[in-house]
């Protein structure tokens, strides 16, 4: 083909009426390029791997981020559900007027409840062994205002908690000690009576009146609740309380409420919130979550690179077809859009399939975990290691949208260069040796 022929082709291009962008003609050609033929099997295999990579990458991102969100929500709910959103502790003077202080704190706007308590560490003993425990004294009325305890009593009752000498313990503690409701649990404290021979440990047996199951293994194995007056007597605290826990409407606004809490206490106090007490734990969760997002994004990026390689091979293979289309009047823009549609279709369909797969797995993740555990005869989610008794998953619409948009953007960007190369292909060079 001579230079004159090339000039004729370019003149014909200028005179030809260009097709409407993304017209049915362009979609038809792109669809034909996506369908496999015998001599194009290798290109189709690459496209298939690209589709699978994007689908698995998007699904993995959605599943992992949902599980991380579920972890944070569940742990936050369990930790704050039993420890409160803010903690008021006395300074200089013992907290003997805790009832009056708690009443004033409950008058602060957005405060749901203020619960005084007495706390100490002890050794609990039962027929099956001895274990460390956190003994907390609390009023029955206040214990009933803690839903994480009051709504999770599996056996026994909290009725008459203040009047009796019974205690409430977690299900894992009961299992480890080998006791049930009605049995006695022995509590041993190193801070006992002072005798001429020194300080002797305090040992006392209490009947178990209730067994609760929070769902967080660490708390179910360590917390023991007893009446406030009994705890004060056991720990030799007379009429003093360890502190007052405050529950608020919005845990994220505790920072703005600190001044009002200190003013309502009307005495020297040290006020801390849940963020200060758990900063290391939740910071580690946030860092892990961000790092996992970056690492798993690489899966989608690798799949996008597969799209680039597959599209470049397709452009080379379709060089003759591109040249013929150009001679028939197809513009450079039409050729570019055809290959954009071809590559973007892989990414869009893969992203949609990944979203559906991730959604299905997240909605059935606990059943899947149990099935895999049964299949492999191993415990995939040990409560002792992960604190929670089941695998949580919480899909965040904002994060999921970000994942989908990121996958679509990478897929679209991956097709730009191959499509540009196809549009720049010289039909004379492509047909020179045909």
From TrEMBL:
* Bilayer topology term: Multi-pass membrane protein
According to the lineage, what is the superkingdom? Bacteria
User: Which regions span the lipid bilayer?
Assistant: 42-68, 291-315, 335-359, 401-420
Q: Which residues form the MacB-like periplasmic core domain?
A: 51-263
ABC3 transporter permease C-terminal domain location is 293-427
Instruction: For the region Disordered, give the residue spans.
Output: 1-20
Where it sits in the cell: the answer is: Cell membrane
- In which broad location class does this protein mainly occur, judging by the first location in its UniProt entry? membrane
The UniProt keyword set, sorted, is: Cell membrane, Lipoprotein, Membrane, Transmembrane, Transmembrane helix, Transport
Taking the record's annotation, the residue ranges forming a coiled coil are: none
Q: Which family does it belong to?
A: Belongs to the ABC-4 integral membrane protein family. LolC/E subfamily.
- The protein, known as: Lipoprotein-releasing ABC transporter permease subunit
């Amino acid at each position: 083909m001579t230079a004159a022929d090339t000039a004729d082709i370019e003149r014909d291009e200028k005179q030809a009426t260009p097709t409407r962008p993304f017209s049915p003609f362009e979609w038809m050609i792109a669809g034909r390029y996506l369908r496999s033929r015998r001599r194009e099997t290798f290109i189709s295999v690459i496209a298939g791997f690209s589709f699978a990579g994007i689908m698995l990458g998007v699904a993995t991102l959605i599943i992992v981020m949902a599980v991380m969100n579920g972890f944070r929500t569940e742990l936050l709910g369990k930790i704050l559900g039993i420890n409160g959103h803010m903690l008021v502790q006395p300074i200089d003077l013992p907290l003997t007027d805790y009832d009056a202080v708690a009443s004033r704190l409950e008058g602060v706007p957005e405060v749901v409840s203020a619960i005084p308590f007495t706390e100490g560490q002890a050794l609990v003993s039962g027929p099956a062994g001895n274990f460390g425990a956190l003994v907390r004294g609390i009023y029955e009325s206040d214990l009933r205002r803690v839903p994480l305890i009051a709504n999770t009593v599996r056996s026994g009752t909290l009725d008459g908690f203040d009047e009796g000498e019974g205690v409430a313990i977690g299900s894992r503690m009961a299992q480890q000690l080998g006791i049930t409701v009605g049995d006695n649990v022995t509590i041993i404290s190193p801070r006992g009576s002072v005798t001429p021979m020194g300080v002797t440990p305090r040992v006392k047996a209490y009947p178990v009146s209730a067994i609760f199951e929070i769902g967080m293994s660490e708390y179910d194995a360590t917390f023991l609740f007893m009446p406030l007056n009994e705890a004060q007597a056991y720990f030799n605290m007379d009429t003093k309380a360890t502190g007052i826990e405050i529950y608020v409407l919005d845990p994220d606004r505790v920072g703005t409420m600190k001044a009002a809490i200190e003013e309502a206490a009307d005495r020297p106090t040290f006020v801390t919130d849940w963020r200060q007490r758990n900063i290391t734990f939740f910071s580690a969760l946030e860092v892990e979550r961000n790092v996992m997002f970056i690492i798993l994004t690489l899966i989608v990026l690798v799949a996008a690179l597969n799209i680039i390689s597959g599209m470049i091979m397709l452009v080379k293979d379709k060089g003759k077809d591109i040249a013929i289309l150009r001679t028939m009047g197809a513009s450079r823009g039409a050729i570019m859009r055809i290959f954009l549609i071809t590559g973007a279709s892989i990414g869009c369909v893969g992203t949609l399939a990944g979203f559906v797969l991730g959604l299905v797995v997240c909605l059935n993740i606990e059943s899947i975990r149990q099935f895999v555990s049964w299949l492999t005869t191993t415990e995939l989610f040990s409560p002792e290691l992960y604190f929670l008794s089941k695998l949580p998953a919480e899909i965040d619409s904002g994060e999921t949208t970000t994942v989908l948009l990121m996958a679509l953007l990478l897929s679209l960007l991956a097709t730009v260069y191959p499509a540009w190369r196809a549009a720049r292909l010289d039909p004379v060079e492509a047909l020179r040796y045909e």
